[in-house]
Predict the structure.
Amino acid sequence: MSERYNVYCDESCHLENDGINVMTLGALWCPVAKRAEISKRLREIKVKHGLSADFEIKWTKVSKGRLDFYLDVIDYFFDDDDCHFRGLVVPDKTVLNHHDFGQTHDDWYYKMYFVMLKSIFDPESKYRVYIDIKDTLGHEKITKLHDVVCNSHYDFSQHMIEKMQRIHSHEAEQLQVADLLIGALAYLHRGLTTNQAKLDLISRIKERSGYQLTRTTLIRESKFNLLIWNGQGDS
């Protein structure tokens, strides 16, 4: 019997002309059967630190006063064998020349999402993909992305990738952790240094993952998989 997984995706600085060079995409995935257990454990961590169970984990909320809470969230991610993360970093999207490749920024964006997701998918398993709602990623784009990803996997009947839909981040703790991890990657690769709590959190991610977060990991890395995309390969 094939395993079924939920994949929770988020993105940062993905717009073409947002004035920020670095773009990050990320996905946290876990077995559907473990979804409720993971959500419950993350809510317990919130309450342990005096926060509401409904408090939304977000990179933008990382501060000195909440550092211990966010460190616990990171440790939980690395301690739970059912949680996995795949991140993609584009170091400088301003140097892209879409015209030369006969594509729009949206076309390239779909390609990057596929590159980010493809190493997660196992043809023997089934997947439900949930993407954080952004004003720029409407229903039509989600439908197109689903088609692109399925067709690229010869999954024309959408048997492997059962669905792809938008959700709000407050609806899923797993999506909130994805936001935290891609936020850390974006902060590091943008060279920002003004928030010591965020730097401490990045240091914990480096320590727990065993990576400096500046180089691509092996494609078979299943816990914290990272691709620094330079346009030369789609590993």
Summary: Residues 173-189 form the longest helix (17 residues). The first strand starts at residue 4 and ends at 12. The mean pLDDT is 87. DSSP finds six helices and six strands in the chain.
